[in-house]
């Protein structure tokens, strides 16, 4: 079947925010949300607002059904084997912290090796640093080559030392690098490691199949994929999740509580203590529906076209340095620097033209240190991005160069 | 839009960014202090030579955005020759007033980084004196 292309003009009509006239180039940070998502949330608030899993009246049943329906949508979206493997969390950060706490405290021992990469986001570094400090474990980081791609030879060497855990992002949020995740997971599994893949930047932008990927854990956020903030997913292989202790404890994650002791709820609810982000989870379900309707192959094809266009447009500008691999090997993220102009000054000037551009270390300070720069400017794209927004970015860059000349 | 940008990055701010005053290091300073703003990688450090309670000489060094560096340059001009006790009284509004532009909440830390260097540096010396 031929890949459908996206009808961006029609898509943009679903996003009222574009009526403000902004050029939004910060979707790797958080995406915009279509009416279908906000509408699903509003419907919950206005028509069946109530708590889930508890009450016997009709609107609570409706809320529970809608809330749980997202689980099957997500399962199908990432091709997990069972909805028992789909745990609702606030986002990628909470998902990784959950694994570091519930799996890590049980399985990481003194002297164990944890392998991360220099491309990782702070949320896939700091939880492991805390765990390693507590357990006396060791962390090694896979470096990048001059093209901004992970050094697979170095990973292979580290795997010979038998790491307990290998964790990395499928797509780098700071440079857009698409890592060869399937090969990396296969090699790490062969070496006996448990593998966590940070899918925050991949799930919104390309087809994901966790079973084909073969990882043990996969984490992502709803708010980067057209959903609201506060709802994300931890996928975990069932036998691992079964063996793990709860992360948060309290209401709704138990079967029975007695003074003598407590039995925990079945998967996935064992990991979902307290009143949940019900509207947000329903919104995430609507976002998955929206993306499934577009088709993730079409989403990737559109972003590749935009990324190629942006890459070429930016390459033509004097005094501009691009970081990371060529468009075919990267997601819709372009990090760059301008000679003599700090990224924050560029972002301020772009903002005057209603161009929303990210400037900073992108929660990847080890990578910035590795590149020898304090920060970059970053443009990132999504289903609604059109070439005219890239043209506006180029105009802003030239304006900044004129001002700072 | 261009005029708004020109106003924001007023001539003299760009001038202080491109041609920073009192830039460099002092040998054997009486006070030396550096602060950074990890969020954007701005760094500002200042060296002071203090004689009879007066800032006799001052240099700053650093890197970062135009706002942070111009703010530091402007502040050194003001500090040179000023009694340390007077320098301690310089506040946020003084620094922002000197810049003379509207600073958005996102950039306020850039604008005030040099003031932080002054405050921590100046009070640090006072502590040493008491010891």
Structure, explained:
Chain A is α/β, with parallel strands linked by helices and 405 residues long. Chain A folds into two domains: 8-30 and 295-404, Aspartate Aminotransferase, domain 1, CATH 3.90.1150; 38-293, Type I PLP-dependent aspartate aminotransferase-like (Major domain) (Aspartate Aminotransferase, domain 2), CATH 3.40.640.10. Chain A contains 14 helices and 15 strands. Chain A has helices at 8-12, 35-47, 58-78, 92-107, 126-135, 152-159, 181-190, 210-213, 238-243, 278-294, 296-315, 343-352, 365-371, 387-404; strands spanning 23-24, 86-89, 113-117, 138-142, 165-169, 194-198, 217-221, 232-236, 254-258, 261-264, 320-323, 333-338, 355-356, 358-360, 376-380. In chain A, the strands form four sheets. A seven-stranded mixed β-sheet of chain A has the order 2-8-7-6-5-3-4, sandwiched between helices. A four-stranded antiparallel β-sheet of chain A has the order 11-12-15-14, covered by helices on one side. In chain A, helix 2 packs antiparallel against helix 10, helix 3 (58-78) crosses helix 10 and helix 12 crosses helix 14 (387-404). The longest helix of chain A is centred in the first third of the chain and has 21 residues, at 58-78. With 131 residues, chain B is α+β, with helices and mostly antiparallel strands. Chain B has a single domain, classed as Sufe protein. Chain: A. Helix content of chain B is 50%, strand content 21%. Chain B is built from six helices and three strands. Chain B has helices spanning 2-8, 11-18, 66-79, 84-89, 92-99, 108-130; strands at 31-37, 42-51, 54-63. A three-stranded antiparallel β-sheet of chain B has the order 1-2-3, covered by helices on one side. In chain B, a hairpin with a 4-residue loop joins strand 1 (31-37) and strand 2. In chain B, helix 3 crosses helix 5 (92-99). The N and C termini of chain B lie far apart (55 Å). The A-B interface holds A 342-345, 348-349, 352-353, 359-361, 365, 368, 373-375, 399-400, 402-404 and B 1-2, 4-6, 8-9, 14, 18, 38-43, 63-67, 104, 107, 110.
């Amino acid at each position: 079947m031929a890949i459908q292309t996206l009808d961006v003009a029609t898509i943009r009509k679903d996003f009222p925010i574009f009526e403000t006239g902004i050029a939004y180039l910060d979707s790797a940070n958080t995406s915009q949300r279509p009416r279908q998502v906000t509408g699903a949330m509003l419907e919950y608030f206005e028509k069946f607002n109530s708590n889930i899993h508890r009450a016997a009246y009709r609107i609570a049943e409706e809320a529970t059904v809608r809330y749980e329906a997202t689980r099957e949508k997500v399962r199908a979206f990432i091709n997990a084997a069972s909805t028992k493997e789909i745990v609702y969390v606030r986002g990628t950060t909470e998902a990784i912290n959950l694994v570091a706490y519930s799996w890590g405290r049980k399985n990481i021992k003194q002297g164990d090796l944890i392998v991360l990469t220099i491309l990782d986001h702070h949320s896939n570094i700091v939880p492991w640093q805390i765990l390693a400090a507590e357990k006396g474990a060791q962390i090694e980081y896979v470096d990048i080559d001059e093209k901004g791609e992970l050094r697979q030879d170095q990973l292979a060497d580290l795997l010979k030392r038998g790491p307990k855990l290998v964790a990395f992002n499928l797509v780098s949020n700071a440079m857009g690098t698409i890592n060869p995740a399937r090969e990396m997971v296969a090699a790490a599994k062969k070496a006996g490691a448990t593998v966590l893949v940070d899918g925050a930047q991949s799930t919104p932008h390309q087809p994901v199949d966790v079973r084909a990927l073969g990882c043990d854990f996969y984490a992502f956020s709803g708010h980067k994929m057209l959903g609201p903030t506060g709802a994300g997913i931890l996928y975990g292989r069932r036998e691992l999740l079964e063996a793990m202790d709860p992360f948060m404890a309290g209401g709704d994650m138990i079967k029975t509580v007695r003074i003598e002791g407590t039995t925990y709820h079945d998967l996935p609810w064992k990991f979902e203590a307290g009143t949940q982000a019900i509207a947000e989870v329903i919104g995430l379900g609507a976002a998955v529906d929206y993306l499934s309707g577009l088709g993730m192959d079409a989403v990737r094809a559109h972003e590749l076209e935009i990324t190629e266009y942006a890459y070429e447009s930016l390459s033509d500008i004097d005094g501009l340095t691009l970081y990371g691999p060529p468009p075919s090997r990267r997601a819709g993220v372009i990090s760059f620097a301008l000679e003599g102009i700090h990224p924050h000054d560029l972002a301020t000037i772009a903002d005057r033209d209603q161009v929303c551009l990210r400037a900073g270390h992108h929660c990847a300070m080890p990578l910035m240190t590795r590149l020898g720069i304090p920060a970059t400017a970053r443009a990132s794209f999504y289903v609604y991005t059109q070439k005219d927004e890239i043209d506006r970015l180029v105009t802003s860059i030239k304006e900044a160069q004129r001002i700072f000349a | 839009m261009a005029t708004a940008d020109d106003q924001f990055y007023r001539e003299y701010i760009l001038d202080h960014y491109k041609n920073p005053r009192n830039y460099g290091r002092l040998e054997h300073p009486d006070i030396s202090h550096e602060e950074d703003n990890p969020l954007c990688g701005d760094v500002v450090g200042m060296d002071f030579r203090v004689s009879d309670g007066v800032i006799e000489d001052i240099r700053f060094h650093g890197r970062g955005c135009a706002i942070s560096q111009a703010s530091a340059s402007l502040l050194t001009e003001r500090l040179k020759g000023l009694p340390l006790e007077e320098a301690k009284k310089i506040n946020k509004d003084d620094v922002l007033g000197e810049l003379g532009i509207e600073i958005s909440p996102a950039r306020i830390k850039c604008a005030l980084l040099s003031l932080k260097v002054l405050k921590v540096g100046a009070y640090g010396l006072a502590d040493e004196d008491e010891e």
